[in-house]
Design goal:
It is found in: Endoplasmic reticulum membrane; Golgi apparatus; Melanosome; Sarcoplasmic reticulum lumen. Keywords: Calcium, Endoplasmic reticulum, Glycoprotein, Golgi apparatus, Membrane, Metal-binding, Repeat, Sarcoplasmic reticulum, Secreted, Signal. This is Calumenin isoform X2. GO terms for molecular function: calcium ion binding. With about 325 residues, this protein is mainly alpha-helical. Helices cover about 60% and strands about 5% of the residues. The protein is built from 17 helices and 6 strands. The strands form 3 sheets. A two-stranded antiparallel ribbon has the order 1-6. Strands 2-3 form a two-stranded antiparallel sheet. A two-stranded antiparallel ribbon has the order 4-5. The longest helix has 18 residues.
Length: about 325
């Protein structure tokens, strides 16, 4: 099955899922950053939370099998990657960016899987023509397909998003730009397109705004005369009290943005600040490789730290 057919099948299956889903099931359009770790953040007990936050939970487990020397060596190589401007020190901002990337590994894995299918000429870039031809090639000659879906309209929407992701306007995406295209909610400069697409999905009367019934209708389908679930009543109250800030009965672009892209507490920023504070021996607000490696057990695990924790647990018994 080629990419175009597979993507069309996915679209159809998602449409069917929405159409057939139980009326009491809630659709959630709000984008929240996931927690950095499901471990308790208590450095007095262990650094497990910090390991998960710094490396991502899956990668953190691999370090637990290493000796302290191996952990330090691999950590040193990671530091070189974190120091993006190559000035020899790691700033809080660089550390925050690294943590966010470690936590979004599933995003980058998804891009890697799709990259090879779309980069047809293997030049390390993906042009709009490449993406369009692979995704919509079989439908471009049939603007009125039998299944009733308007693929040309879908293609125009994709093109608009591709152009926004393409920062230099050459209609050729680098891997980072292609990542922004596939996962726009992860990039600040793409947030407007996330809001625009969401509003287009929900705004059924085409007035460019979202009223209460459109808001509720997007997440709940009435099943005959069945009484609305409590969560629907709560959402109606949420719309009136919090979503519709100017009380005009509708959500505009800014109000929709506040809803689907809330300004959550930035866990990555807090963790970066914590790691710098704990490791910054000369208190200059930046970390050298030596400062990080000296405090390696805070950043990564190893057999030694695991053994130490095992001894503590044994003593507790």
């Amino acid at each position: 099955m080629n990419v175009a057919i597979r993507q069309a099948a996915l679209f159809l299956s998602l449409w069917a899922l929405c159409a057939l889903s139980k009326p009491t099931e809630k659709k959630d359009r709000v984008h929240h950053d996931p927690q950095l770790s499901d471990k308790v953040h208590d450095d007095a007990q262990n650094f497990d939370y910090d390991h998960d936050a710094f490396l991502g939970a899956d990668e953190a487990k691999t370090f637990d099998q290493l000796t302290p020397e191996e952990s330090k060596e691999r950590l040193g190589m990671i530091v070189d990657k974190i120091d993006t401007d190559k000035d020899g020190v790691v700033t809080e901002g660089e550390l925050k960016a690294w943590i966010k990337k470690a936590q979004k590994k599933y995003v980058y894995d998804n891009v890697e899987r799709q990259w090879q299918e779309f980069d047809m000429n293997q030049d390390g870039l993906i042009s709009w023509d490449e993406y369009r031809n692979v995704t919509y090639g079989t439908y471009l000659d049939d603007p009125d397909p039998d299944d009733g879906f308007n693929y040309k309209q879908m293609m125009m929407r994709d093109e608009r998003r591709f152009k926004m992701a393409d920062k230099d306007g050459d209609l050729i995406a680098t891997k980072e730009e292609f990542t922004a295209f596939l996962h726009p909610e992860e990039y600040d400069y793409m947030k407007d397109i996330v809001v625009q697409e969401t509003m287009e999905d929900i705004d059924k009367n085409g007035d460019g705004l979202i009223d209460l019934e459109e808001y509720i209708g997007d997440m709940y389908s009435h099943d005959g005369d069945a009484e609305e679930p409590e969560w629907v009543k709560t959402e109606r109250e949420q719309f009136v009290e919090f979503r519709d800030k100017n009380r005009d009965g509708k959500m505009d672009k800014e109000e929709t943005k506040d809803w689907i892209l809330p300004s959550d507490y930035d866990h990555a920023e807090a963790e970066a600040r914590h790691l710098v504070y704990e490791s910054d021996q000369n208190k200059d607000g930046k970390l050298t490789k030596e400062e990080i490696v000296d405090k390696y057990d805070l950043f990564v695990g190893s057999q030694a730290t695991d053994f130490g924790e095992a001894l503590v647990r044994h003593d507790e018994f």
